[in-house]
Design the sequence.
């Protein structure tokens, strides 16, 4: 659980962050799973394999609490000289 005023730091993601990134993505998007196709949902929340590919092919940053919980992530990368992708996710705060 994230305190509403938790202090976070932003840093470049490392391979050891993969599990925390997956937890953050699932927390952010599980409530909307019914709005996605199965393939679209997997592409959005990633898998243990695709999160490593994302870390290898994009600049990925995480927002982490002092306790190390990843509560947000953003990734960016070029697809071509004319096109880039930005993907951002934030774990919802508890009600």
Sequence:
């Amino acid at each position: 659980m994230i305190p509403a005023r938790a202090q976070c730091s932003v840093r470049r993601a490392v391979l050891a962050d993969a599990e925390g990134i997956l937890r953050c993505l699932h927390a952010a998007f599980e409530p909307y799973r019914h709005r996605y196709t199965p393939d679209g949902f997997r592409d959005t929340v990633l898998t243990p394999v695709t999160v490593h590919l994302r870390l290898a092919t994009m600049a990925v940053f995480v927002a982490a609490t002092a306790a190390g919980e990843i509560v947000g992530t953003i990734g960016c990368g070029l697809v071509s000289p004319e096109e880039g992708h930005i993907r951002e996710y934030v774990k919802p705060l508890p009600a």
About this structure: The two ends are 10 Å apart (CA to CA). The helical segments are 18-29, 38-45, 48-57.
